[in-house]
Write a structure and sequence with these properties.
The complex is a heterodimer of chains A (279) and B (244).
Chain A: H1 2-29, H2 36-52, H3 57-82, H4 86-105, E1 109-111, H5 125-144, H6 147-157, H7 159-164, H8 169-195, E2 197-199, H9 206-221, H10 226-249, H11 257-278
Antiparallel strand pairs in A: 1-2
Chain B: E1 2-9, E2 19-26, E3 31-36, H1 42-50, E4 56-61, E5 64-65, H2 71-75, E6 78-82, H3 95-103, H4 142-155, E7 160-164, H5 172-189, E8 193-196, H6 200-205, E9 209-214, E10 217-223, H7 224-229, H8 232-240
The chains are: A mainly alpha (279), B alpha/beta (244).
Chain lengths: 279, 244
């Protein structure tokens, strides 16, 4: 039981980062960016390639995040220059990046069993992952309190008024998608280190899991303040991962997991829709 | 201060230009009231000044050509208050956050904490809003929200203030009160102002200059004693006239 809880908590920290990453486009910028579906595995692939090339694990993780952040910038630029919807731009890039990941990895999956990682022992995994979550969450919270952060929130809440206040909404979209996908890319790099292998298909369904976690967190905490908006993906990811874990622990056949996951998402969405009506 | 030369705006869906060869010079500190029928080009003029529509001609503000600037760059040296408060302020941010955004309109973004203690609430327009400092704007009344929007527009000492029917969504008492505060503030701070209104009473009662637009052209431009001689009936007659 304790192993099962530990594994769930470890996996939830990865999901916390991805949910935090998508909270920026979905909640701060209010655009439906699905690039995470590509930036998460890109982070994993870049990390795996660099780790096999003996690059320092910390540097490799940061570079993985940076590469994923560039993918976010790509989505923003496709939207702004080619006038393609952010959602469609994200889908296009996520599809394209699959081939890049295959080139980076050289094969569909890579084992990293004997490669050094940020985890110096198996017992250090949870503290390290929780530390990364707290550092990134805290840094994001601090950033959103600055002048630039306030401008980014304004550009997301009301672009017309923001433009009337002299804010360049386009540049904040680029910055926001960079930050969101950077966090998702770091999560991809950490997931690879946690599993000790990289798989080219590791991002499939990630957006749905992260969105479900975000919505669940918002159901539990609300989203009235910036603090709650940032805490919601973290709490939601923890609960969501453990719901899945308990379902498996309770005897659910693993092949039914996606069906149950979808039902959990629908239930959360239904509940989420009821909240404003009740209030 | 503001120079508009041969400004023309044409929408593809309309056979005639909305503004045609429009010229205007506004001196520093002048308070111009603009009236005209619906579709006469008043709001299009504001949109062209703000760069929201593609236009031909030259617009210069404080000797700086605006033509090549993006709308957000133009807005950095202007204050805008529209009839709908949502286009001037951000409802989901707190009052203090809105004021902070307005105060840093001219500065490039920095990575320093945004909410530094500032003397926002010493401004006469904001003195009674201190209690709402950390509340989202939803807790303010329509009149308070428009007063906040006006204060936000004035905080960064704009070169030009654009008021687009900013009192029209308010009840008569709140509208009268906001109009009086507006006139007093822009005259005491010497801010160059263009104000669109549909109220003939306000058009005659406020401002140092009156501009009447019809079919994209300036049909009346009076100031000083000439403006004071005008009566509501004169303006109403002008409105009823069919221009070629």
């Amino acid at each position: 039981m304790s192993d099962f809880l530990l594994t769930g908590t470890l996996q939830s920290t990865i999901l916390m980062l991805v949910a935090l990453g998508i909270a920026i486009p979905f909640r701060i910028l209010r655009v439906s960016d699905l690039t995470v579906e590509g930036s998460f595995p890109l982070g994993g692939a870049v990390y795996a390639a660099l780790a096999l090339a003996q690059v320092n694990p910390l540097l490799a993780t940061l570079l993985a995040g940076f590469a994923a952040g560039l993918l976010g910038i790509g989505t923003a630029l496709i939207h702004q220059r080619l006038r393609v919807e952010v959602m469609l731009g994200g889908i296009i890039l996520s599809t394209m990046v699959y081939s890049i990941n295959l080139r980076l990895m050289g094969q569909p999956n890579l084992s990293l069993l004997d490669v050094p990682s940020l985890f110096f022992s198996s017992s250090s995994k949870l503290p390290v992952l929780m530390g990364v979550v707290l550092v990134l969450g805290g840094a994001l919270w601090c950033f959103l309190q600055t002048e630039n952060g306030l401008r980014m929130r304004a550009a997301g809440c009301n672009p017309r008024a923001a433009s009337n206040l002299g804010i360049n909404c386009n540049s904040y979209l680029v910055l926001g998608l960079f930050i969101g996908n950077l966090i998702a890319g770091i999560a991809g790099g950490l997931a690879v280190q946690n599993q000790a292998y990289a798989d080219v298909g590791m991002g499939v369904g990630m957006v749905i899991h992260a969105l479900a976690a975000l919505l669940l967190g918002e159901c539990l905490l609300g989203s009235q303040s910036l603090g709650r908006q940032l805490a919601a993906p973290l709490v939601g990811a923890f609960c969501y991962q453990h719901i899945q874990g308990f379902a498996l622990y309770g005897g659910l056949i693993p092949s039914d997991l996606r069906l149950v996951t979808g039902l959990v998402v629908l239930a959360v969405l239904l509940f989420f829709r009821k909240v404003p009506t009740q209030s | 201060m503001l120079q508009i030369k041969h400004l023309s705006v044409q929408f593809p869906s309309k056979p005639r230009p909305v503004l045609e060869d429009f010229c205007l010079e506004v001196a520093a500190g002048e308070f111009c009231v603009i009236i005209g029928k619906n579709g006469s080009g008043k709001s299009t003029l504001f949109a062209a000044i703000l760069g929201l529509h593609s236009s031909q001609g030259e617009i210069t503000l404080a000797a700086k050509p605006l033509t090549s600037l993006a709308p957000y760059e133009r807005a950095r040296c202007m204050g805008v208050v529209a009839q709908d408060a949502d286009s001037s302020s951000i409802a989901s941010l707190s009052l203090l956050e809105n004021l902070t955004l307005a105060s840093m309109r001219r500065n490039p973004g920095k990575l320093r904490p945004a909410l530094q203690p500032q003397r926002f609430f010493e401004h006469p327009l904001l003195s009674d809003l201190r209690e709402f400092a950390n509340e989202p704007l939803g807790s303010l009344s329509g009149g308070q929200r428009q007063r906040l929007a006006l204060a936000m527009a004035l905080l960064s000492k704009p070169n030009l203030l654009l008021l687009d029917e900013h009192c029209s969504a308010l009840d008569p008492r709140a509208a009268h009160s906001l109009m009086a505060i507006t006139a007093q503030t822009v005259s005491s701070e010497g801010i160059t102002t263009l104000m669109i209104t549909h109220s003939l009473q306000d058009a005659l009662g406020y401002g140092s200059r009156l501009l009447v637009l019809d079919a994209g052209k300036l049909v009346l431009d009076v100031k000083g004693s000439e403006k004071h001689k005008l009566r509501e009936e004169d303006l109403f007659r002008l409105f009823s006239r069919e221009l070629p």
